[in-house]
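Predict structure. Input: Response regulator receiver protein, 260 residues.
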Amino acid sequence: MRGAPEEVPKQGAHIVVVERDARLLELVTLTLRARGYTVLDCASGASALAQLQDSTPALVIVGDLEADPNRSGEDPQRAFAERLRRVPRLQQTKLLLLGGAQTAPATELAAARLPKPFTGGQLRGAVEALLDAPAPSGPVQQHTVMVIEDSAALRGLIGDILHRQGYRVESAATVPQARALIESRAHLVSLILLDINLPGGTGFELLKLIRDRTDAPVFILSALRQEEQMLRGQALGAQAFIEKPFNPRELVEKIRATLT
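Output follows.
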């Protein structure tokens, strides 16, 4: 029996991909074109900026770029992002960075960063999340959301989306990290997103600790929508069960509704 048809992205969504590695550039381009996007691939920042003079893409994806030999110590991704933002028509264009650390110089100028190596599914998820993410609807009270998730790509993506909506974010990837964070910071957190399958233990163990420290709402994240898991989570005090993969827009709206 066939399952439900896979959702196809909006036709005409225009994406520019900039990456000096020819093989990676080809793989990213083919992956996105297979999803129905219109993709312009560029091997350098200079060629991309030239092409962007006549177009307004929905998203620009920036990977590794050649450093300018005349600008010693300059971060190529940041330099490209700054030049992009100087064009008034492109100031609101979403920017996805490939590779590097969340603390890298260009991160503050981008909507999200996808760590390397990444899978085709992670790339598609990041792109679809950014193109579907709602724009901030106004000032948000400075709530703090704790994200406990072992996938670096998903953890970073959720964090980026929440930051753009005005939330503070605390994050952990393993049970020991999460336990330390909960014990020291739980009283400052407004809501917790909790994965079930984590290195060093399970989310259910952490849920017991969370309930000893705070009454903040807890949303369980899991790829396995099993009734037993849902009932166990509810019994331990979880407010909601979010099945992976999830729609980022719906997650943000659910968080906003819970904290309003």
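The first helix runs from residue 22 to 34.
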